[in-house]
């Protein structure tokens, strides 16, 4: 039996737990933010780690490279350079005997050289200087003074104060017995020779007595040579020549006696000294024998042995061809 509602009453309200009381809208939980799958998150994290490692390695590599470049630049800047474009270096006697398989025989620095620099070789013995060349010119080793006053006389014969070309000066130490003007004449003849560095007009030279000179050739006793070369950090041991800056120091022994290893007169050996040293002043480096039986380059350190070549004092032959060879590193 159905019960009737009393008049004027409303039907009862039945609460729906899934509906909002005010809006009667279904309570729908807020949507969840889409998230990454766990596997993908781990992969992304690993990628970030690898990327950071690569960046760190790249930064370390760049730092090491920068350090190497700076160190190399410091070495280049630290070397003394000459007016002619080459580093100041001791130029060894071009025909002094070298030990078999020995290093470059350039005079050693006063201080220990870096590992990349070849160690110095022993100097030539006194008996080596008593060669046939001293008999040819009537000069004996015992007649050559070991030291002198350290004062020089400038050669004045043949000067050309207003000419063209590289200005050079010739000076001879007092008490050596060498006439400055005669020595200057020999040097001038070598520099102007068609087989010398004046070949083809590429280089010209003029002798001066006063004023500035970019090249100064000094003939001095062994002791004075050692002292002046030592000012450039070079040790010549009383036996060899050297070049520092604009100065070419010619050891009196080598000028007067030549070398027993050079097959020719002393005058020809003097030409080798001048051509070799002036070649360095012009910026040329050492060269080696180009082949058996061929002329040894003037820029070859013939002191190390001719290596199959024939002794030669000139950079060019009679036909104007350069007598060169492979460059020595």
Q: Could you give the order of the helices and strands?
A: HEHHEEHEEHEEEHH
Low-confidence blocks of residues: 13-28, 73-136
State the shape: elongated
CA-based gyration radius: 42 Å
Mean pLDDT: 74
CATH class annotation of the domain at 125-282: Alpha Beta
DSSP, total strands: 8
Largest sheet: 6 strands, mixed
Instruction: Give the termini separation.
Output: 125 Å
Helix content: 25-40%
Strand content: 5-15%
Instruction: Based on the coordinates given, report the CATH architecture of the domain at 125-282.
Output: 3-Layer(aba) Sandwich
Secondary-structure class: alpha/beta
How many helices? The count is 7
Reported by name, the CATH topology of the domain at 125-282 is Collagenase (Catalytic Domain)
Key features of this structure:
7 helices; 329 residues; Collagenase (Catalytic Domain)
